[in-house]
Design brief:
Blueprint: H1 2-9, H2 15-18, E1 48-53, E2 64-67, E3 74-76, E4 85-90, E5 100-105, H3 109-114, H4 128-133, E6 143-153, E7 165-169, H5 174-180, E8 196-199, H6 211-229
Parallel strand pairs: 3-5, 6-7, 6-8
Antiparallel strand pairs: 1-2, 1-4, 2-3, 4-5
Pfam families: Methyltrn_RNA_3
Organism: Nephila pilipes (Giant wood spider)
Family: Belongs to the class IV-like SAM-binding methyltransferase superfamily.
């Protein structure tokens, strides 16, 4: 699943560099197009583009060449290891340049500067404890939300302001099974691990709903509450 998610986020023109065809992704080409803003085609102008650093000689201290899905490669000021995926912010005027000029920036920069969604990142956690202990944000997650059919009605919950939010879903057997399979966590019930343990689908009728259905239902149910609390 991790490979499929990373493949899905990667712009089509870069996939051959990062995902050679092999047995772990036999059905990748059957996925619907994501059509995300960072999945750009050749004739679309954009201030930002995703690229891969090329193994192409550059004078010492002069930066790196990056393939960004255009006929012209980009020349950035930073020296970066070939094969690395980077987000490139292009200079405003590149019309008369042999190479597009720009610089490597954080993947968050398009969102911060232009409020433009720029895809998602994937983090693999070996167990339940790793989800919390290996959080990439300093100070961890401000708010932890567990989704379960044993949780309280989400409509009764008001969330505090937050910077980094975690929403966790279990599989078909719920977060209870995740806890049972992790001996490193000292907790008798999964709700002890979260600030909020809620049910976003009170009357689904069937005995269980799939995780993918639960994700869509939950995000739709919580979006107004979460947007109102985001810092």
């Amino acid at each position: 699943m991790t490979w499929y998610l990373q493949y899905y986020d990667c712009p089509p023109y870069l996939r051959k560099y990062f995902f050679p065809i092999y047995r772990y992704l036999p059905y990748a080409e059957l996925l619907n197009s994501l059509d995300s803003p960072h999945h750009l085609i050749v004739d679309v102008k954009s201030r930002f583009r995703e690229g891969v650093v090329l193994n192409k000689p550059v004078k010492s201290g002069k930066g790196s060449y990056v393939y960004i899905g255009l006929k012209k490669t980009a020349l950035i000021g930073q020296e970066i290891k070939p094969g690395t995926r980077v987000t490139v912010q292009l200079d405003p005027d590149n019309s008369n340049e042999k190479h597009m000029r720009g610089k490597a920036v954080s993947r968050m920069t398009p969102l911060e500067l232009e409020n433009c969604y720029w895809g998602f990142s994937v983090r693999f956690a070996h167990d339940l404890n790793s989800v919390f202990s290996k959080c990439p944000f300093e100070g961890g997650y401000d708010v932890r939300i567990g989704i379960s059919n044993k949780g309280e009605n989400y409509e009764k919950v008001a969330f505090p302001t937050y910077r980094h939010l975690l929403i966790m879903f279990g599989g078909m057997n719920g977060l209870e099974e995740c806890l049972e399979n992790d001996d490193t966590i000292v907790a008798s019930e999964p709700k002890e691990l979260f600030n909020y343990y809620i049910n976003t689908c009170q009357s689904h009728g069937s005995r269980a709903i799939s995780t993918e259905e639960n994700i869509f239902i939950t995000l739709e149910a919580l979006k107004h509450k979460l947007f109102a609390s985001e810092r």
